[in-house]
Specification:
The protein folds into two domains: 92 residues, Helix Hairpins (Orthogonal Bundle); 70 residues, no CATH class. Helix content is 72%, strand content 0%. The chain contains six helices and no strands. It is elongated and about 115 Å long.
């Protein structure tokens, strides 16, 4: 294995600079340090892959000893994708931290205040709607000719006339029998 001394020195410098920058309190510097360490790991995997060779494709007349190992290449590509995903996550954290710092003492309460105002408005609408429904029901009850004190659905003129419920039931059943008899 012949590793280029330049790449080894570059890898060591990236590791050292990345770790020292990562130890800062600022999230932006932590992100930069993470990117430096990620690139240093990629160079390390590249260096550990061995001597360069032919493309890792077996074909007719290709000696297996001359082909480069494809596994380190896959590791480097995977590390690049993971590094990109973690960078996006760190950028989201940095933005959220900046936004909360910009809000100051309010913090996350801005959204809650808007939701509370919206909930209060919805509740007031429901109360107004309920009051309107109650008024409409009351006006229907007042407009009807049923006796609200009996609760039986008797009409006021029936109560006044003194007609029994039993008599009304007998008349209704007699009408039902007549209707059934007249049907073919």
């Amino acid at each position: 294995m012949t590793a280029s001394l330049t790449l080894v020195i570059l890898m060591a410098v990236l590791f050292g600079a990345g770790i020292s920058v990562m130890l800062e309190r600022s999230l932006t510097r932590v992100l930069i340090g993470f990117l430096l360490v990620g690139n240093a790991v990629n160079i390390l995997m590249y260096l550990m892959s061995g001597t360069p060779g032919l493309a890792p494709i077996l074909g007719a007349g290709v000696d297996e000893g001359e082909i480069s190992d494809p596994l380190p290449q896959a590791f480097v590509l995977t590390a690049i994708v993971i590094n990109l995903g973690i960078t996006a996550f760190m950028l989201a954290l940095i933005y959220r931290s900046w936004w909360l710092a910009k809000l100051g003492a309010k913090g996350d309460l801005v959204d809650d205040e808007a939701e509370l105002a919206e909930d209060a408005e919805e509740t007031a609408d429901l109360i107004r709607s309920s009051a309107a429904d109650d008024e409409a029901i009351q006006s229907l009850i007042e407009a009807s000719d049923e006796d609200p004190s009996t609760g039986s659905g008797q009409r006021l003129d029936e109560v006044d006339a003194g007609i029994d419920e039993e008599e009304l039931e007998r008349e209704a059943s007699a009408r039902d029998r007549d209707d059934e008899g007249s049907r073919p």
